[in-house]
Amino acid sequence: MFIHKMTDDECRSALQKASVGRLGCARDNQPYVVPIYFAFDGEHLYGFTTLGQKIEWMRANPQVCLEIDERISQNQWMSVIVFGRYEELPDEPQYEPARMKVHQLLLRRRAMWWEPAYMSDMHRNGSHSILPVFYRIQIGRMTGHRATPDIVEVPAQEATHLIGKESWVDSILRHIGMKN
Amino acid sequence: MFIHKMTDDECRSALQKASVGRLGCARDNQPYVVPIYFAFDGEHLYGFTTLGQKIEWMRANPQVCLEIDERISQNQWMSVIVFGRYEELPDEPQYEPARMKVHQLLLRRRAMWWEPAYMSDMHRNGSHSILPVFYRIQIGRMTGHRATPDIVEVPAQEATHLIGKESWVDSILRHIGMKN
Questions:
Q1: pTM
Q2: For residue A65, which residues of chain B lie inside 8 Å, CB to CB?
Q3: A178 and B107: CB-CB below 8 Å?
Q4: Is the ipTM of this structure higher than 0.90?
């Protein structure tokens, strides 16, 4: 397996392909993580939800973290972590262009049906007409890692960029006393 | 689609079946979310990783949040959110039983190969012998929601427990002025 740090462009490309992420917010240093449906326009991450704990916390503390990952197999995966800032998009003229993006990127695709928070709020309130809260996340910094399978087999001593599966698992087992 | 709040037993059962979750920690109210491989023994959530930002942050602030979700289709998904407390399991006699659990539940299965943080740290340090940090999470409270497909089709006016896909999407579109 070969692991490399993703470039900024690679991270952005992964965000563009993803549609589901896990959004972390925090209040009094208590983190809270929820799955969200989102879209990336190349600059901001857009989402919507109903009023609830997530929105209350992000209004009080706009520091957020969005994580996306994809695991094809044990030696083929990627993970991107974005640190950003929550920005609400209220129904006011100056936010109209941004709100239109939420519509174009998310609502028009009708792809958010699954979002747990949204649906459960709707269910709890027994209503089909809960006003959605539109928001976007300004990206601060991001990091990403991608693993790809070994392309060529090389002797262990030459494989400075490869991690031998057996050897490091054995190494851990040795460390915890399960192997001599 | 029918959505219901999961009972404590249902949440525990979902945690037992899951192996991948997203762990949130926070420092100075900045959340940080990472994918982790974990196991649940019915009482605690067990995991391991290398020293790094995640461990540093959890040592400084043990309040964490673990989220798991599963999406089979748009109208069939579940999501469980656990608020808990990070507890490190150092290589000391009193932690031996707990460390053995990490071995039994996680290491023996060799199922953590994919964990991005672990692998990238190993890669960065060019070493196969980085000491893993073992930890567990004491569960505080948890919530879960599950969506199941409609079993029977009933007229909209009778379907107080069902959410009509068309009607609520249309409702949102109306609210944002995209539909009359």
A1: 0.80
A2: 24, 30-33
A3: yes
A4: no
